[in-house]
Design brief:
Chain A is built from twelve helices and 17 strands. With 398 residues, the first copy, chain A, is α/β, with parallel strands linked by helices. In chain A, the strands form two sheets. In chain A, strands 1, 2, 3, 4, 5, 14, 15, 16 and 17 form a nine-stranded mixed β-sheet that branches.
Chain lengths: 398, 398
């Protein structure tokens, strides 16, 4: 087993101590521990944070390793961006396995020990992207736990043959059924939602649907989603990603949606976007909604932003939700670490006895300081095994 | 004079070339220049960006150099934050000159060659902060051009004696008259605005007023501000900082304000906040409004964020305004560099013949890439003189 004794380490905002990980879990925290034959690391007084959760990304899309992509498309027109991407992926001959290896390892180097990736399923690429990302998930199982979502990026009802491919994707072992803007992209909310909820039920899996639709349109789609999840009794099995509509500034409109999401123990995933209304940290906490965060795609045809750093993402979460005090900064971290893991349906990561031995050792006087610095990670540990050191994974990306 | 020949350097997105700065200005750009006795630097193929403009900050407030500040106050209550700060500044015995030296040099190390700083004037600290920042401005005149704004942070009408101090501040040589939320803080828009416009007129200076007020309240205050600026013919002399109210999503309400601001050749300064409605890049460009950006206070009692990096700020500007294409990323940079200089009433910084010899040499394949990387600056040049190298200024902060 990968037993590990970390000396001279601070648990979150605490004083220096030692942490012993045995059999993949935090076995002891205290002074002068007897590690036996465990490997030993000296954290140099740095902070131990829980392993982080990249809860919304697209491992098959990044252009990492390619020459820098010059973007002529910009934002604003969703369908133009979708079409441009499908064409560029073909022209560049992106290999989803190689790209997802590069992307996942970079994300792991920043301290993520869990990743949920949406993976394109469409009639151009078929199931090739899913095969590639699943191969990556297997190869990296000691480094980062990867969940896959079968994602109809190019639409479902507007793209005949996609439903059959999604069915196939679930048979291959995709962890969740995906979906996308049932009004905005498919123009057929009933058809879209009946199809993906039907497939989720058939395969006994949860749903993670992209919902970019703003304002009333998004609230309408959210209601259609909730109706189906409630009817199927999908407690703890529904995720809505982005959910910009929860940023509608009218409690009378939004609170009923929040209450229904809370009752379903649903998850919301956010990028903490600066340019859009969005779900907020305290709003989610007040309604008992699980809340995770992610980079979304990084450095791809959609835009130049993102790098896989979930500690920098905690900064974005803090900025988006106007979190400033130390206590509030802990909430921002939690969305990107323990709380994000819970939103992914996984065990909460924490730096405490009995918790999974996933840790990130990083520079900082306090959690708040570590977040705003987001210095290169000194050490990343997955289930007691060192996976990254000084900002780079031990495993080299292809 | 500080003549400088920079070899193997790329002008924005261009191919490697050479740049010669003579007598403080860009004298030649081209291959194999004859620099004569100019100092020579090799940029190693990196990009030259224009010197950057930190157009809204508070040099007297940062806690840089102090132990990390544990924040128990959080956001949400503006008056509580103002009161906490005034108390903490006293308790910690902050020296405005030393703090502004630290803050300004860190900002310069990131490539800013211009800074506009609001400086607290209140009945507790009197004019001490302004004296300290003015001393810094003088000491750093070869490194960064610092403008000062006499800023009634603790209110004006609610704090008798402040108006007299502001008058004194303008006599001392503050560059601009400041102001703050005439309704939200002072509860007396007429009294507040009549006072600061009166002082600006008396001393023949421009105005830069903080306006955090949201929605209709902010729009009302903006109208009161515009009425006075128009009446006094303050073309090119009005700046409104933050101006969250311009983010009201109703063109019928906002467009008339934008048109009046454009006609006044007014400036808007933003932090590109993620948690608030805000003025946007294309909106400002469409109405011919000068647009600058800033970090606001960095690592102070208000919050843990900010570091003085105007290239990272360009990333925030891009994220806030949903800019993605290469052409759009150039717009984000401009807000933080040439356009920001113009918003400060200074000459536009550009990398072209005849422009001021303020340059930043930085890693990146393109401007967009340089923004999202915001790697430590290789070299910062002010009027042909190297002021920072590898992320640190040559002058050491106290």
């Amino acid at each position: 087993m990968n037993d590990l004794l970390i000396k001279n380490v601070r648990v979150m905002d605490g004083a220096p101590t030692e942490i012993l990980i045995r059999d993949g879990r935090i076995a002891q925290i205290g002074a002068e521990l007897d590690g036996g034959d465990a490997a030993v690391e000296d954290a140099g007084g740095r902070i131990a944070l829980p392993g982080m959760a990249e809860a919304h990304t697209h491992l098959d899309k990044s252009l990492l390793g390619y020459p820098w992509y010059h973007n002529d498309v910009g934002g604003g027109n969703l369908m133009a961006m979708i079409d441009n991407e499908r064409q560029m992926k073909k022209r560049l001959g992106l290999d989803p396995h190689i790209q997802s290896m590069r992307h996942a390892l970079q994300t792991a180097a920043f301290g993520a020990t869990m990743i949920r990736s949406h993976v394109d399923v469409d009639t151009t690429g078929g199931l090739r992207a899913l095969e590639g990302v699943m191969e990556t998930a297997e190869k990296l199982s000691d480094v980062v736990e990867i969940q896959t979502v079968a994602f109809p990026q190019s639409g479902l009802m507007i793209s005949p043959g996609t439903a059959e491919l999604l069915d196939e994707a679930m048979k291959m072992g995709a962890d969740l059924m995906g979906g996308l803007d049932p009004c905005g992209v498919d123009h057929d909310p009933k058809g879209h939602l009946d199809t993906i909820f039907g497939l989720a039920e058939k395969h006994g899996k949860g749903i993670d649907i992209h919902l970019h639709e703003h304002g009333e349109l998004g609230a309408f789609s959210m209601e259609q989603i909730l109706d189906r999840a409630e009817a199927l009794g999908m407690k703890g099995m529904l995720t809505v990603s982005h959910a910009f509509c929860l940023g509608i500034p009218d409690p009378a409109r939004v609170d009923p949606l929040l209450e229904r999401l809370g009752a379903l123990e649903a998850s919301i995933m956010t990028t903490a976007p600066a340019s859009s209304p969005a779900p907020l940290v305290k709003q989610m906490a007040q309604h008992g909604i699980r809340f995770g965060a992610g980079n979304d795609g990084i450095q791809d045809t959609w835009g130049p932003y993102g790098n896989g750093d979930m500690l920098e993402r905690a900064k974005f979460v803090g900025l988006r939700s106007n979190l400033r005090s130390d206590a509030e900064m802990h909430m921002a971290l939690d969305v990107c670490a323990g709380g994000g893991a819970k939103a992914m349906g996984l065990e909460r990561r924490e730096v405490k006895l009995g918790a999974p031995g996933d840790l990130v050792i990083v520079e900082g006087v306090s959690v708040a300081h570590a977040i705003v610095l987001h210095a290169p990670r000194k050490l990343v540990v997955k289930a007691g095994k060192v996976t990254a050191r000084d900002g780079a994974t031990l495993m080299i990306a292809p």
